[in-house]
Amino acid sequence: MSDLVLSPLSLQPHLSLVDAVYETLLEAIVSGRIDSGTILSEVVVADQLQVSRTPVHDALRQLAKDGLVERSNNRRAKVTRFTRDDVYEIFELRKYLEGPAAELAALRMDRRQLQPLRDHADALAAKPRDEEWRMAWAVFDEEFHHTIASSSGNSRLTRDIGRYRLLHRGFNKTKTELASLEQALSEHYEILDALETHDSVRARDAMIAHIATWQTYFMQVIELST
């Protein structure tokens, strides 16, 4: 397990101090710069970020609500170590949530909302397959799922989807094979086709199948790493 190393916090005008600490820790966790199981001492984090303990305490409390940090009885925070069962259940919940969200979105989304997703997918498909493409794919994937969730018209559903996608990012520390990302892009096109024709059942089933593919992939990754 690596030692905790954080750079002094750079304040951003649009973020409160608590939000800035939260975003800094969140990025470090989901990027893998902070390993699973790492102890997050409020004193150490505050010292490294050069802030007081209060915003660190509040940020860690939010990360605990998100499921990315665990607090023991002595209130010591530790980065969550996801088990095989955790990963399986997170994907099951994503299927239960994002399938119906796509079904609802298919009845509500119009060309004005769908065309940017289609354009982004086409631009991605035309790019050379390199590390820059991998990063561009991640940006598109986040935009794609967020847009569909928010287009469901159900704010609670959208928030829950965001939470479980955040947990997904919490254990997705591996460099995914380009072939798997290519497959996912083709599945995105299948979902887009269903949304554009307002075929709600097809959109739901395509979204569930897409998430199930990733569920199988990550379960295999976990099996190989244990």
Automatic annotation (TrEMBL):
Membrane-traversing stretches: none
Q: Which UniProt keywords apply?
A: DNA-binding, Transcription, Transcription regulation
Q: Which residues form the HTH gntR-type domain?
A: 15-82
Determine the domain of life of the protein's source.
Bacteria
Which SMART domains did the record assign? Answer: FCD, HTH_GNTR
Alphabetized PROSITE patterns for the sequence: HTH_GNTR
In alphabetical order, the GO MF annotations are: DNA binding; DNA-binding transcription factor activity
Q: Keyword check for DNA-binding, yes or no.
A: yes
Q: Return the protein name.
A: Transcriptional regulator, GntR family
What is the scientific name of the source organism?
A: Pirellula staleyi (strain ATCC 27377 / DSM 6068 / ICPB 4128)
